[in-house]
Amino acid sequence: MSLLSTRINLDAISHNVHKLKELVGPDVRLMCVVKADAYGHGVEKVAPVMLKAGADVLGCATVDEAVALRSMGIDAPLVAWMWEPEQDLSDALSSNIVIGVPSLQHAQVLVDIEVPVKVAIKVETGMHRNGVDRAQWAEVFALLNDAPHIEVTGLMSHLACADEPDNPHTDVQAEEFRAAIAQAREAGLECPINHLANSPATLTRPDLHFDQVRVGLACYGLEPVAGLDHELQPAMTWAANIINVKPIKKGESSCYGLTWTAPADGYLAVLPVGYADGLPRSIQGSLQVTIGGKSYPHVGRVSMDQIVIDLGDNPFGVRADDEAIIFGEGGHSATELADAAGTINYEIICRPTGRTKRIYEGGIDL
Ligand SMILES: Cc1ncc(COP(=O)(O)O)c(C=O)c1O
Predict the structure, then answer these.
(1) CB of residue 33 inside a 6 A radius of ligand 1
(2) 316: CA distance to ligand 1 center in Å?
(3) Do the annotations mark residue 129 as ligand-binding?
(4) Residue 52 and residue 366 in contact, taking contact as beta carbons nearer than 8 Å
(5) 308 CA to middle of ligand 1, Å?
(6) Is 304 annotated for ligand binding?
(7) Annotated catalytic residue 35
(8) Among 3.30.70.20, 1.10.3720.10, 1.10.10.350, 3.20.20.10, what is the CATH number of 10-220?
């Protein structure tokens, strides 16, 4: 038994990846993004499920994440787009990983190393975070085209506002991306695999799928755009077992700073989760947990290891050992919690850490 756990439903991930593959069709390659330990779902278990369900490629942020996937026995195509120019790339170079090139300096490093490598050139199209600026496109394209040991698989770029479907900036970026592809081809690069779309663009902008899409959040069953429903199944549930139920009297206050005072005689449930486990202290006032299908408010400060839940007069007889759902199946969704807490569902699913144990469900036919 675990006091605090994330239950990861591998069948939900399989379902979502199948759906996404169906949505993009046979001519577009589906990259499932598994950075940050598969958005907190555990990449070692999740990656094989995604590949079996139709992922053509896996995407990592850091090259170290991609190298780790190889050491887990994953032999599928991998792309990784974050590395520092001074980094030792030998493991990545011997692991057949497509490496993202976000600057002239990065390009020069790969040219100088003289080891065969496949790259995706990450071009700046309007997010202004990490990509080759337009002023240096020509130089980078020529440099990589002239290096016989470098194979440019194509261009990639990232959208800043795809989660706001009406935002015209997405079209501005798409135009810029098309211009970059045209310029790269004029420079002699074939660029067979170009990719721009993240989850929101994959779901809402089929015209921006290009040759490959890079989907993260939707694989884990969450909608990146409020109000849409693509019949995805959320894969993660964060649950805590109640460690104590105790009475509190009207006028007594609870937890650090005594910021909450009982309005009437009642009961508190103590949950073994705190900010050391990834529950933000700032969530005070926003969190409702679900116990036996009923929703109860968290009250008082979040401590390092504990929070308390106001059971009122405990009409349903909640007891120690009962399970409280922080988010997920049987409780409020990660999106509802994110909305209440003023953040995004991406952050919520990456939160559980510390003493949280992962428990996997489904995926038994693997
Ligand atoms: C470069 C890049 N591509 C794709 C993704 C996947 O985004 P999403 O989770 O919205 O699908 C990310 C994640 O932020 C990313 O950084």
Answers:
(1) yes
(2) 43
(3) yes
(4) yes
(5) 35
(6) yes
(7) yes
(8) 3.20.20.10
Answer yes or no: are the C-beta atoms of 144 and 189 closer than 8 Å: yes
- Cβ–Cβ contacts within 10 Å for residue 364, how many? 8
Average pLDDT by stretches of 10, the chain with 366 residues:
94 98 98 98 98 98 98 98 97 97 98 97 97 98 98 98 97 98 98 98 98 98 94 98 98 98 98 98 95 98 98 98 98 96 97 98 76
Domain limits of the chain? 10-220, 236-361
pLDDT tens-digit series, residues 204-216: 999 999 999 999 9
pLDDT in tens, 326-363: 999 999 999 999 999 999 999 999 999 999 999 999 98
Our answer to whether residue 256 is catalytic in this structure is: yes
CATH code: domain 236-361 is 2.40.37.10
Q: Does 198 contact ligand 1 (Cβ within 6 A)?
A: yes
Distance of alpha carbon 202 from alpha carbon 245, whole angstroms? 46
- Measured in degrees and rounded to the nearest 5, phi and psi for residue 313 equal -90, 20
The amino acid that residue 89 corresponds to is: L
Task: Give the pair of three-digit tokens for residue 37.
Answer: 């330990």
The one catalytic residue in 19, 21, 35, 122 is: 35
Residue nearest to atom 8 of ligand 1 (CA): 216
